[in-house]
Amino acid sequence: LVHSVGESLKDGVLNILAHLGIFPEEALPFHWAAIERPVMVTDHQIKRVRAKCSGLFIPSRRLKETLKEAERIGRTIDPSLGLVRDEIFSPVDSQIVAIRHHPVVSPGTVVARLILEQV
Question: Whole-prediction pTM value?
Fold first, then answer.
């Protein structure tokens, strides 16, 4: 993961330098269109998905994955028994832009942020 973040940062810096005319575009090690552009959204386009009970959140999906409504995002399990306490599903067609990394959750803890699919 760190390597891919570093590569993205390097490509972004080279793209900015080419855009400003400091670095020749033809010397870029990629075509300028290959740069991943950020998606601009408002708060109204973000859906926060919250845990309903306490336990350990185990994600079933990864960052940037596209979800259909009712697809599972993850599970909350009881750490002492290993039993599933709750399954967490996507409420809408969306894309995951943030997913909880630390597993311990309480009721109301945000476990994922989703960008609502554009109509």
Answer: 0.70
| 38/35 Cα distance (integer angstroms) | 9
Residue 117 is predicted with a pLDDT of: 79
Strands 46-50 and 72-77 come out as unpaired
Residues 6 or more apart in contact with residue 46 via CB below 8 angstroms? 97, 113, 114, 115, 116
Q: What length does the chain have? A: 119
DSSP annotation string for 63-102? TT-EE-TT-EEEEEE-TTT--EEEEEE-SSSEEEEEE--S
